[in-house]
Every structure is written in structure tokens, then in C-alpha cells.
Design a protein that fits this description.
253 residues; Rossmann fold; six-stranded mixed β-sheet; four-stranded antiparallel β-sheet
């Protein structure tokens, strides 16, 4: 299997006592879906941002395919264009339509023509079932629809991998379903994805591997069934117990 993205001995420290990424090594292969979960404040989002080189790590290396992104001479703008990133908070330009939001990076970053940008943007919106909303503005869209536009924006660049930082955390349960359905569709198409999420039923269904992350480090990795039936570490056992109870309460409401 071809490795799409990898990091080796990655570190990111914000102050002496706040180490968000602590000597983390990680790899994701073509077509894999890996899901990171763990307590709030454990450094998951920082790790994801370091992988995308949106946050520059203090030490260690990040590779996209065979290219080391942490070398000083690397063109980071060009490299980042190959990585789709979907943020936890929905960052759409309010003055642009859904189509305009997706087109913008294609024209400004990839330097595509107006015609090609329009064609690729519409194709991406079609993939997330938002084509009929292409000319609506963010204020006219639900939170779930806005996040699907965010996913389309990442898809339109034909990235090597898509990183998603808790893409449903800002949504209510009804709207969460829209986004989860979109990610299921992408999974069926073999899209390589690294996702930070606590949506456990979704994780159990589509993740090839789950990664329990705590205190800036990967504590345990394994297939979903391992975490749902017999987590190996005490920290993962306690966290999964709380998370499964919380999920059940939400489903019972």
C-alpha cells in the first residue's frame, strides 16, 4: 500500500507545561480512513494542523507522499494545496455564494481559469449533494449545508488526503447526520481521510483504524472493535466507557 502521509517524531510545544504534540510518529496509506479521538484539550487539533502544516511543528518531519514538508526550501503553499482541510468551525466567506466559496481557492491558489474553476467547483458540490444550493449564500444555508460546502471546497482541489477537525461538533444532531452521510459517501469512493471526531457509531462503521490521543501523544491504536469491546490501555477504557454512555444518552433523547 502506498503511504500518502506520514510524520516522524513530531513535537509542538506552546509553553513549558503545554506539550500538544509529543514525539508522535504516524502513517496513513492510500484509501485508508483513520479516526483520532480523545479528551478535550489533549492536542488532537494541533496534531492535525501540524500534519497539514497550518501549524509549524517545533521538531520532527511531515511527509506528503515522498516529499518532506518540513524542509526549509519547500513551497508550503503548493504543498498545502494538495491537502484538503475541513475546519471544526465553518469558515465560509459570507459575501460569496456556495459556488464562489469553492471556486475561490481554485482560482487564487491553483491559478485555474474561470471556466475550469467553475466546472470543478460544481462537480465538488455535486459530490456532497449541494449543487442545487450553489448560488445560495452562507446565511441562506443550514449549518450542515455550510459544512458540506466546506467539504466540497476541500474536495475541489483533488487533494491527496482530506483532514477533518471535528466536522460535526458545531452542529445539532439532525444536521450532524447530513455531514456524516457525506463522509460515508466519500469513504465508499476510497477517499483517504484523517478525521478527528467523537461520533462513535460513525467511527465504528467506516474507520479502518481508531487512534486514542491523550496528553499530546498516541496512547493506543487499533480497529474500531478493539475500542468498543476491549481497549488495551486503562486511559482508553475509561474514556470509551464515558463516551459510549454519553452517546447512548443522546440517542435515547
Amino acid at each position: 500500500m502506498n503511504t500518502v502521509m506520514e510524520c516522524k517524531h513530531l513535537w509542538k510545544t506552546y509553553e513549558p507545561h503545554l506539550v500538544a504534540v509529543k514525539d508522535v510518529s504516524f502513517r496513513i496509506n492510500e484509501g485508508e480512513i483513520k479516526l483520532i479521538f480523545g479528551p478535550s484539550g489533549s492536542g488532537k487539533s494541533t496534531f492535525l494542523r501540524c500534519m497539514a502544516m497550518l501549524t509549524i511543528p517545533d521538531k520532527g518531519d511531515v511527509f506528503l507522499r515522498d516529499e518532506c514538508l518540513t524542509k526549509p526550501e519547500v513551497d508550503l503553499n503548493r504543498a498545502r494545496a494538495r491537502i484538503g482541510f475541513v475546519f471544526q468551525h465553518i469558515y465560509l466567506f459570507r459575501h460569496l455564494s456556495a459556488l464562489g466559496n469553492v471556486e475561490l481557492a481554485l482560482r487564487r491558489v491553483l491559478k485555474l481559469s474561470k471556466e475550469e474553476s467553475r466546472e470543478r467547483a460544481l462537480r465538488a458540490l455535486r459530490e456532497v449533494k449541494m449543487e442545487e444550493w450553489a448560488h445560495h449564500y452562507p446565511a441562506q444555508l443550514s449549518g450542515g449545508q455550510q459544512q458540506r460546502v466546506g467539504i466540497a471546497r476541500a474536495l475541489a482541489r483533488n487533494p491527496d488526503i482530506i483532514l477533518l477537525d471535528e466536522p460535526t461538533s458545531a452542529l445539532d444532531p439532525e444536521l450532524t447526520g447530513e455531514v456524516i452521510d457525506t463522509l460515508r459517501d466519500l469513504a465508499k469512493k476510497g477517499t483517504t481521510m484523517l478525521i478527528v471526531s467523537h461520533e462513535m457509531p460513525f467511527a465504528r462503521e467506516i474507520a479502518d483504524e481508531m487512534i486514542f490521543y491523550d496528553e499530546g501523544a498516541i496512547v493506543e491504536t487499533g480497529p474500531p472493535e478493539q475500542f468498543f469491546t476491549s481497549p488495551q490501555s486503562e486511559r482508553a477504557q475509561k474514556f470509551m466507557t464515558r463516551l459510549i454512555k454519553k452517546t447512548k444518552r443522546e440517542q435515547d433523547v
